[in-house]
From TrEMBL:
Record field: transmembrane: 154-173
Keyword Iron: no
Domain OmpR/PhoB-type: start-end pairs: 3-101
Top-level taxon: Bacteria
This protein's name: DNA-binding winged helix-turn-helix (WHTH) protein/tetratricopeptide (TPR) repeat protein
């Protein structure tokens, strides 16, 4: 292989120096995993067969598929890929593997020179719009400023990702060793992936054994973070990577780090554990058994004893069941849901008979977005579980509650979480109780019931901090951000959401990060910050290949459409919408309505009024069960009404009357604007004026920039058309602070200064509106004075 430098996805692979780097940081990689990456990249124009790849890596043919699979797994992990995402290395069924990511290949010497020259070069913005044909604007704002009312959805997952937060004092005596560790009675430990010697077929013990060991130590009274957190923090680096170890130490500076080795020994299994503190004090234990997990259990119990901890309770699961569970968990930790499912259903009779296997299979379904199947499994498990094991029953209830949240059935979710809280009221399982309280808080938040939501989130914080689960605390912060959004306090929400996103990003909590970024898009749009909204969408878009839930993929796509519409990037919004099916029958009901609603907004912005009306009617036809988003319905109704009124003849009755009945007193600003514009269309100036004042007052009481701008765009234009320039100046002046970032506000400024014939101010306003227009055209009468 010639010496070349291959660049891809933030990584560089130098075949001359045999080095893989992520940015400027070296990544630990075994020689065979390096050869695997290099060969697949060099042959990226085609799929490489397994036999060919084996010959290229080992130089001989007698290598098993299992060994090859383990090597590909290590190669994928090194570059942040896995069998689920397959962003770089794609599995070709019954053939081999294919490198699918874009690669830039250069000479290493040329690359070094280019890097030096580029060190001082400016970096262009990543979200700059591309030029495209302009689209005419209508006389008033082409579409209502979209007040997105989504909150953080379903941050209570069946496998909650957490990282320990507790700590303890170490006695700084390297020579004290075991005695020092016992004297301080460690409260916290981090278990690292195990080193596995022997047959590659036993590779599942690396993560499966790690998870089993962590659970055993947890049962012995130590605070141990879920394995998902540790694996996420260590990827894509190897377990021995210095940067990863520093990150673990930064997160938990006084925690015990537990390393382990599993190896066959005289037809038995031997497990060696090494537990070390931050000061170097250490304990080593070993155990042998005929079964690898039994040896791990004995070693864990001996470690607990050496630390002065009580022995964990006896195993309640059959060894065969336990091994199958840990094999499946190893696959889930590697994000290989298909392999996990195959392991769990490999013995159908065992899967049907053992509730823990059924529960783990429901977890796989949940992570794959198969919510109905997960719900059916959890229903059956709960029907059979009885009251003999309150903790397991509470786990099942927490799981089903999370499923019901994903299905937008908040009443059912609340019942599940109520039952879980009742089972856990003795406080012996603070983490499960904290998750149940968080879930119940989410249900209150999604139903706009702030007081009980705040109470539950506060109680959840106490329980999760007691459990040392700092990422679950971050999950509470994310939910508090969603709650503040529902309370029309986007400024306060922003601090919670940004803090939570930073925590999730740091530890690779992909699902939680995606949910929080989606909420940030909504929050920035409510604050009239479209560039910030797109920046949040850019971050989530990079993670899209790792999302397996079709509802979440649809949601992040629609968020991106929202951001493009706010920036006037209509062509890109249209491209994304055309990539989606006409109907999404399998999506949750709110997403099924949101898709045609966005199509309606795009069509209205492009002047396709008939298409906008058709899409709006389709959106209004989706009424989710228990729908309480009347404001969202009113937003769609306003789009429909504007589309219909733009095309003569005008109807005698409101076009949205079948969905939005007339209200003498509006509940939301958008509803009052809807009523005002209909009154104006009927020539009822006094009624229009009254409803506009009502809309303005409602928006001001809320104080949300998007609501205030929505009202000002319509009301300001109406005042100008009726020659009420002084009042128009007051209304339009209210949104002048946002004219540097919101097109509708900038266009209003231009209309006002044009009506007042203030030449210099008009010229500046035209410049500002032109800069923000994107693909929206400013009317010719405003572009050229005197027309």
């Amino acid at each position: 292989m010639s010496g070349r430098l291959h660049r891809f996805g933030g990584f560089s692979l130098n075949t001359r120096t045999r080095e893989l780097r992520r940015g400027d940081v070296p990544v630990a990689l075994s020689p065979r995993a390096f050869d695997c990456l290099a060969y697949l990249i060099e042959q990226r124009g085609r799929a490489v067969g397994k036999d060919e790849l084996i010959e290229a890596i080992w130089g001989r043919p007698n290598v098993s598929d299992t060994q090859l699979g383990q090597t590909v797994l290590r190669a994928r992990r090194a570059i942040g890929d896995d069998a689920q995402a397959q962003s770089f290395i794609r599995t070709v069924a019954r053939h081999g593997y294919h490198w699918v990511a874009e690669v830039e290949t250069v000479d290493p010497d040329e690359a070094s020179a280019a890097n030096a020259a580029a060190a001082t070069a400016a970096i262009p913005p990543t979200s700059a719009p591309s030029p495209a044909p302009a689209v005419p604007s209508q006389a008033v704002a082409s579409e209502p400023t979209h007040r997105v009312r989504t909150t953080t959805r379903a941050l209570v997952a069946l496998l909650a990702i957490a990282l320990l937060g507790g700590g303890f004092a170490w006695i700084a005596s390297r020579h004290a060793g075991d005695t020092a560790l016992r004297r301080v009675a460690p409260a916290s430990a981090i278990v690292l992936p195990l080193r596995v010697d022997g047959d590659p077929a036993d590779g599942w013990l690396r993560l499966g054994g790690m998870d089993f060991l962590a659970q055993r130590l947890r049962e012995g009274g130590l605070v141990v973070p879920p394995s998902e957190s540790v694996v996420a923090l260590l990827q894509p680096a190897g377990a021995a990577d210095d940067a990863a170890m520093r990150a673990l130490r930064d997160a938990a500076p006084t925690a015990l780090l537990v390393r382990g080795r599993v190896a066959p020994h005289d037809h038995r299994w031997r497990v060696d554990l090494h537990a070390s503190g931050a000061d170097g004090a250490a304990v080593e234990v070993e155990a042998e058994q005929a079964d690898a997990l039994a040896a791990t259990r004995d070693a864990a119990d001996r470690l607990l004893g050496r630390l002065g901890r009580a022995q964990a309770p006896a195993d309640v699961l059959d060894g065969n069941v336990q091994e199958r569970l840990q094999r499946a968990q190893a696959s889930m930790l590697a994000n290989d849901l298909a392999a996990a499912r195959a392991i769990l259903v490999g013995d159908p009779q065992l899967a049907r008979a053992e509730p823990q296997l059924g529960y783990r299979l429901a977890q796989v379904d949940f992570r794959a977005g198969e919510y109905r199947r997960a719900e059916a499994s959890l229903d059956a498990l709960l029907a059979e579980a009885g009251d003999g094991d309150p903790l397991f029953r509470a786990q099942l209830l927490n799981g089903r509650g999370a499923v019901h949240i994903r299905l937008d059935d908040y009443a059912a979710a609340e019942r599940d979480y109520d039952a879980a809280v009742a089972l856990l009221h003795d406080g012996r399982h603070p983490r499960e109780l904290g998750l149940a309280l968080t879930g119940r808080g989410v249900t209150h938040s999604m139903r706009h019931d702030a007081a009980p939501a705040l109470a539950d989130f506060g109680d959840a914080r106490v329980q999760l901090e007691a459990a040392g689960d700092s990422l679950a605390v971050a999950r509470v912060d994310s939910n508090l951000g969603g709650l503040e959004m529902n309370r029309d306090r986007p400024d306060q929400a922003l601090a919670y959401l940004e803090r939570a996103a930073a925590e999730f990003e740091r530890y690779g909590a992909i699902n939680e990060l995606m949910e929080t970024l989606e909420s940030l898009v909504s929050d920035h749009l409510a604050l009239l910050q479209p560039l910030a909204a797109l920046a949040a969408s850019d971050r989530s878009w990079l993670l899209a290949p790792r999302v397996t839930d079709p509802n979440q993929r649809l949601d992040l796509t629609l968020d991106r459409v929202d951001a493009f519409l706010a920036l006037g990037r209509l062509r890109e919004a249209g491209t994304l919408l055309r990539s989606l099916p006409d109907e999404v029958a399998d999506a949750n009901p709110f997403l099924a309505r949101r898709l045609p609603a966005l199509r309606a907004r795009l069509a209205l912005a492009e002047g396709r009024d008939a298409d906008a009306a058709d899409a709006a009617r389709r959106a209004l036809g989706h009424r989710p069960p228990g729908d309480d988003e009347g404001e969202g319905v009113a937003e769609i109704a306003l789009v429909l009404q504007r589309a219909v009124l733009a095309t003569p003849p005008r109807p005698a009755d409101p076009p949205s009357a079948a969905w939005v009945p007339h209200r003498a007193v509006a509940a939301w600003p958008v509803q009052a604007v809807h009523e005002a514009e209909w009154a104006d269309a009927q020539g009822a100036a006094d009624e229009a004026s009254r409803r506009y004042v009502e809309a303005r007052d409602l928006a001001e009481r809320r104080g949300v920039p998007a609501d205030i701008a929505l009202v000002a765009a319509s009301y300001g234009d109406w005042l100008l058309r009726h020659g009420r320039l002084h009042e128009a100046g007051t209304v339009i002046g209210r949104v002048s602070a946002w004219a540097d970032r919101d097109f509708d506000c900038a266009l209003l400024q231009l209309r006002l200064f044009d009506a007042l014939q203030q030449g210099d101010a008009r010229a500046k306003a035209l410049q500002a509106a032109t800069a923000l227009a994107g693909e929206r055209t400013i009317p010719a009468s405003l572009r050229e004075p005197g027309r």
